[in-house]
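Researcher: Quick one. two chains, 590 residues in total.
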Amino acid sequence: MDLFPLWLSLRVSLAATALTLVVGIPVAWLLARKPFPGRDLLEALTVFPLVLPPTVLGYYLLVVIGGQGPIGRLLAAVGFELAFTWRAAVLAAAIGSIALLIKSAQAGFETVDQRLEQAARTLGRSEWSIFWAVTLPLAWRSVLAGTVLAFCRAMGEFGITLMVAGSIPGKTQTLPLAIYDQVQANQMGEANVLALIAVGVVAMLLFGLSRLMRLRY
Amino acid sequence: MVSLSITKRLPGFTLDVSWEADDPVVGLFGPSGAGKTLTLQCLAGLVRPDRGRIALNGRVFFDSATGVDLPPQARRLGYVFQGYALFPHLTVEGNVAFGLRSRPREERIERTRMVLDRLGLAGLERRYPGELSGGQQQRAALGRALAVDPDLLLLDEPLSALDAPLRRQLREELGRIIREWGKATVLVTHDLAEAYQLADRIVVYESGQVLQAAPKSELLWQPTSERVARLIGVRNLLRGTVLKATLEIIQLRWRGQTLEAVNSPSRLFLPPPGTSLPFFVRPEYVRLIRKDRPGLDPGHHMNVMEGEVVGELDQGTTWTLLFRVNAPGALSRDSYDLEIEIPKLVYEILEVARDRWWQISIHRGSIQVLPSE
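Model:
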């Protein structure tokens, strides 16, 4: 039994979640705290990946990062290959899951009493320091919940991944793609094992999350 | 020395205030929605005024003319928020030490220790704000603000979160702490008793404007307008017609009586005869003339009038009598003209419960005439 798709999915999902956090937290904070021109547009944009068909997203992503796409050509010029590599799967998983993190974290930041941040300001702390010492510690539940949801969603990413990373066994074939492949090949036993593993991983994560949520701060 | 002159437009509300104070404690007093908290936020740099200038001891915080606008971090103020806004995820110690992060570790620990000890928070270091009583929360919030050694302490409704009995006790404690630390303070409150007890100078706010700024006793005895008199809860706020005004006295016609009042020496106020003027008499300063002592003493009894007690309110140790002057014409209230307050003991000795007809007198120094608006 080949467990490569499981390891790949875990690796891709971890990397995608990290990417999601780095991009999503600042966006969520901006949406929750700063009025700026184009704010509504950005907010609408963050929901796009949730509501568009994954294949449509995947298609446009491929247009951009593929061999003929603007970014694809730019990357090719510096010798970096993105389309149809595991890195493309990371990008696909991140795009598919980032909305979950942003929405959850934004809601979390919005519930933090702004007077606490103001109090921190009058006490001389910088905005950066306030985020780490006040905002994030008070919104950690929502951020963590968003992170776990984003990770689970990344584990299950199918459509975008298929479009931009393909389903190359031993290279870009993640767990959901492998299951699909095995069903297509009528290897129901192996599909069954992988599906159970997928359910197990997600169930464990969600269970762990609900335990963590009982902690105070 | 706080000096502030700012304008700030919000939807449906405009703050346009200007005041200066060199007193240890300044109280911003007024009804809610008058702009007191907004003023505090502008002082602290949390809200940016549209126009104006804010300075503390010559240090300019904000000046729209020169484009100065110090961020809150650079103003060195200690802001105690309404409801305290303690960090719920930090212990008392963490809260108090919060503003000391940039100091060397040793100083941080020492200063936190000192603040906790002085505010009686020793032993509570490891508690979270949710585990503290109202009074402890107040002290923790004060400690957090005082720990950074601010140039000015800002208190926004420091006692409004508390129940009445605790409130009085903590008011005294708060006054003691402010005096002990010797910090210049600006205090926001909608409770006159609170402002009067804690502040040296009171700035009266209404609808985004300052109506009067004065030392507290001056405010209480010489409000400059009917609006201020109403806000500070003056009870016998009446209206009369000027008969004669000199630099010493003002004669007023009221309810068929001729009243003589001392003209305020500080105001040089000479309204022409016929002017309708508001004036007030504190209920405690109206005297019942004893019937068992014959004859009126002209040096003692002034502005004498006769009437009937038509109602009374038992206030416990004092009684409030509702008095109707025996004269034709419209009453100054629904069913009476004046409120008179006397100690319960006097009420009993004079048998007011049985005897309802009285002559009263009001000393001319007890009639405060207000400028007409």
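Chain A touches chain B at residues 113, 115-116, 118-126, 129, 133-134, 137-138, 216-217 (CB under 8 Å).
Researcher: Thanks, that's what I needed.
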